[in-house]
Design goal:
By secondary structure, this protein is α/β, with parallel strands linked by helices. The protein is built from eleven helices and eight strands. Keywords: Lyase.
Length: 308
Amino acid sequence: MGNQMNISLAGIMGFPVTPFDLQEQVDEKALQANINFLVENGLDSVFVCAGSGEYQSLDIKEYERVVTVGVATVAGKVPVFAGAGGNIREAVERVQLAEKLGADGLLLLPPYLIIPEQEGLFNYYRTLAQSTSLPVIIYQRDNAIFTLSTLEKLANLPNVIGFKDGLGNFELNIEFVQSLGSRLQWMNGMPLAELTMPAYSALGYLSYSSAISNYIPQVSRTFYTSLLAGDQATLNSIYQEVILPIHRIRQLRKGYAVSLIKAGMNIVGLPVGLEVRTPLVQVEREHYIRLESIIKRSIDLVAIANNG
């Protein structure tokens, strides 16, 4: 894709998992299958080594392998972003490695553990942004919550192109979008982002990260197309039959944000396995069966919606 600063963040963003085999080694063939599935189903970009990819559990060699496979598999069809964050020294190392390996951009994840002052938060993200020539997206969630003043300063850095919100404070989001406007591209990064996308879209957020696109991308596409077209009847059906039921399962156990994706991928026949690295846990059998039923129903729903 090249390392242009004019990468568009509009549309549905794909966040592949990092598949592990039974020995907990990265399964590169399964990763390729995951990424190919996303690209073939029309996802607008691919983000490797982020939350869905268990970034926190990957060592530097595994990170290198996942980014390498991601770039090679996408082969320029859509932009490839790599996540980087946590320990500042390790994060800088990974930022620079991702650039060397041919990533098109970076998603800058929060710092490790501490809740910093705004000055510290600014210095952390500025350090990462200035350690690369790639375009970067600032990620707000957990312990990385910005004031307008801090975000304005970060938006002045030449390679900061976007803002991903995983906090869900709409008063703050309105202030950000109204104050910064087109200086940044706005991305909904909430858990199960389809749940909140109508509200984000009204604010000017043009893209979202879709966890379910890893196994039912046709639902993500039909949902977003219906949202943009104002097709409330189809939106309501997808909410009631797919989005809310999956959301309810996700809330049953911590860590299902990742392990439920792998379960869904297994249900549709993608060879990623169910293994997640501790402290995450696998999906319970009862919840797996419930998800299986939802996925089957979603296929029927999409067929009805697309056949009018």
